[in-house]
Amino acid sequence: MHFPWWYVDQLTAPMLIAAISVIHVLVAHYAVGGGLFLAVETTYAYRTKNGDYLAYLKRHAKFFVLLTVAFGAITGAGIWWTIGLASPLATQVLIRTFVFAWATEYVFFLAEIVSAFVFYYYWGRLPEKIHAIIVWIYGISAWASLVIIAAITAFMLDPGNWRADHDFWSALLNRQALPQIISRTGGALLLSSLYVYLHAAITIKDAKLHALIESRSTRPALLGAVFIALGGILWYVFLPPSAQAALVAAPVLNVLMALLFVATGIVFVLLFLGPYRNPGWIKTPGFAASVLLFGIIGMSTAEFIREAVRKPYICYNVVLGSQMLTDEVAAIREKGFLESGTWTKAFVQANYPQVMSADGHVDRTRLLALPPSDRIKLGGMIFQYHCNDCHAIQKGYSPVAPLVQGWTPGMIRALVNDLDRTRFTMPPWAGTPEEAELLVSYLSDVSPARPAGMLPKDLKTGTP
Amino acid sequence: MMDPKNLFDTSLPGGMPAPIWFVELFKWLGFTLHEVPMNLWYAGIIVSMLLYVFGSEHGRQFGSRLMAQMPVIIALGINFGIVPLLFIQVGFGQVFYPATILMAWFWLSIIAMLVLAYYGVYLYAYGQAEQGPKMPRWKRAVGWVSALLFITIGFVFANAMSLMENVKAWPDLWQQHSFHGATLGTALNVADPRLWPRWLLMFGLALTTTAAWISFDSAWFAGRESDAYRTWTKGFAWKLYLVGAVWFAVAGAWYSFGTWPAETKQAMFLSPWAVLTVVTAAVPCAVLALLWFARQREGEISRGWASLIGLAQFGVLGVNAASRQVVQHLEFAPYFDISRQPTETQWTPLVIFLVAFVLGLGLIAWMIYQVGKVSGKTQTATT
Prior knowledge:
The structure holds two protein chains of two kinds.
Chain A: H1 13-48, H2 51-86, H3 88-121, H4 128-155, H5 162-165, H6 168-172, H7 177-203, H8 207-237, H9 241-249, H10 251-277, H11 285-308, E1 313-315, E2 319-320, H12 329-335, H13 337-340, H14 342-351, H15 364-367, H16 372-386, H17 400-403, H18 409-417, H19 419-422, H20 433-446
Antiparallel strand pairs in A: 1-2
Chain B: H1 20-42, H2 44-54, H3 57-102, H4 104-131, H5 137-165, H6 170-176, E1 178-179, E2 182-183, H7 195-220, H8 227-259, H9 262-269, H10 273-296, H11 303-332, H12 347-382
Antiparallel strand pairs in B: 1-2
Helix pairs in contact in B: 1-3, 1-7, 1-11, 2-3, 2-5, 3-4, 3-5, 3-8, 4-5, 5-7, 7-8, 7-11, 8-10, 10-11
């Protein structure tokens, strides 16, 4: 529409956002929780003059810096890269709304980077008090970053009053912000403890030191679990009705919700069985890795659900998955999808001049006069710009061909014309009836025949 | 024949959240700041690798020092890169998004290359710290791979930035790399004559920044090195800067005289922009002169002189970034004018950001001060 659409075979371009986001989130939450862990524990170790614990914390800080400052920062940039490529319109809306929130978050990020390096590289050279202040600067900056980013991502699920007043504060202080800040803070605390368990299990042999780390790390883990539960409940309570309905109606989300509850439950049970009831277990790298693995599964699933419940929106009630603004739909439908889109119109102008009117517009009445092969090709373009955000073609992520397998053109036509009424998780059809016919031609072309050999026979056609 | 003007969307939502001068200022400032560490990894790593193979003992010493500093330099460079990336999207989304989407896979590959290059640098830096000259060959090879990856990243960046301005090429690239009108993301702007000199020009500039860094590092951070090393840095920095400046001049001449469209030439070679063009071309000579004077003086380079060199090089990068911005506007002019976009300034968030920015810089200055205090003590104790 407004920008060229990037076709990624099988996966679809937005799934690249999901892939990088999930990887980033697993490190970014540790960057926050681990920073707070290092701040609290370094202060504690200095206060108790525990040299062994300090030595361990230094080793952990090296692992922490290597993972978060390098991988975390680059994958964070990777999210910027992918959202600009796969959702440029939504990115433009978000950037113009939140540029100063991001700029302020950038200041915290800069403070994070500098304090992380000073904390690690000047360990043992700075006075203890200053060293502890530096790591607290890191921890607080990292958490402040989390607060701002959580509020921005929460806007994508609940724009609050922003649609009415376009005010920055209405956007930032949306109803989903607090639940997501609470749950993400919990996730950061819990996940960081799980990283610490694994790191300690691999690197520490001293039983006494191990017991200390275990007891010190279990408290934030349990606190994190409470925050996750509280934030999760508030998140559900403040979900828009369509998102709540999607959780019930979409089979994929049913499965993911079940997976989320199971994975989170397993983490809680393992924390109870391990550090609480059988402190020795967590020393075993295999056990610690299992707890972390379930934590990662839980957090990845939660991120995927958070993204998926927004459908059909990229920004709820603002930008649709079909890469158009909700406010534009009526006008696009009136004017025509091919005519309204900057890139679709340019493509038609260059490749199908016969359908252009003398005054340079797409003449909808000429579309159906095109030969069948061209109708399919133009229908393919409409599919790309209207549907490929959520659907691959033949195989891959939610491919459309199997979804309409064996359908008659009439059935496909009914679906296209009533997309949003058929499934509320789909955007409304935003084209003219003639353009709908082009899409029907394309979908009929890619749709495989009904699988053979199924009983009872098709009662209407008599074919198996 | 597709008219590239038809590929500009004029119906994008919302206004600019800040005055245009503010967006331009932070885009320029952010890019200039980003250029300092970016130049060091762009040219510095390959220089370090070459010095290890062909350099003298002091040359190897400098290479080791720079590679030890590189993880921090890269982290800061990535961080500083966020600012121009943010503000380019605020003001120039209409050109930034289509250009990067047309070459999406290459643009995205930057992330993968950066992860590999960064960890490669870490591996090399830890290898030399822990194993010194006995570092195995494969780790040395990783250093070379990182150097080449950073140069490749520079090439992809030069592609994206030149494609942003090469709007004329969009229709053909799109048609050649498309599936049902969607782009495959496999286009590259290699047919653009501006791409190659631009890429090379940036490498020449990066060599000059690396040379200026040698002086700065020698005066400020190399207290534990021998007097002989610090004296050597004066001569080497001057020579490397000379190579970089000549490289920059040749590539710059090729870029401006050989590839600029007639309208751009006319604007940049006539008043008022001619002054900026002349300053951009001439200002590296000022740093070269400072390095030459430092070389002529007896003993080590002083901290004050090294700071002056650093500041002057920052000026070189700043002037270059300003010129780039002006040329960018001239090349966008037939298609897109940022000043025509409506502005709805978010004053309160803007002020909050500026306050946070000042406080943040203060906090960072305080941390650096603490580091300086203990570094000073260490150096005093060592001497």
